[in-house]
Amino acid sequence: MSFFSRFGEAGELLVYLWKAKLWFLIPLIVVLLIFSFILIFAQATGVAPFIYTLI
Fold first, then answer.
1. Which residue ranges in the chain fall short of pLDDT 50?
2. 38 CB contacts (<8 Å, ≥6 apart)?
3. Helix %, strand %, coil % for the chain, to 5?
4. Strand, coil or helix: 21
5. What's the Cα-to-Cα distance from 2 to each of 8, 11, 13, 47, rounded to whole Å?
6. How far apart are CA 25 and CA 38, in angstroms?
7. Given this model, what pLDDT does residue 8 score?
8. Fewer CB within 10 Å: N-end or C-end of the chain?
């Protein structure tokens, strides 16, 4: 069982990028995933007004 298999679609994308030797795209994808998790978290809680000042 691969480490990335636990991450679903995102893990499949990272495995594809690794096998296709597109290593330079992995940091971009990771940053986009982190940013999307922050946005989802901000909408689900009362932290949204405070996140706005950071971005």
1. 1
2. 51
3. 85, 0, 15
4. coil
5. 11, 9, 13, 35
6. 20
7. 81
8. N
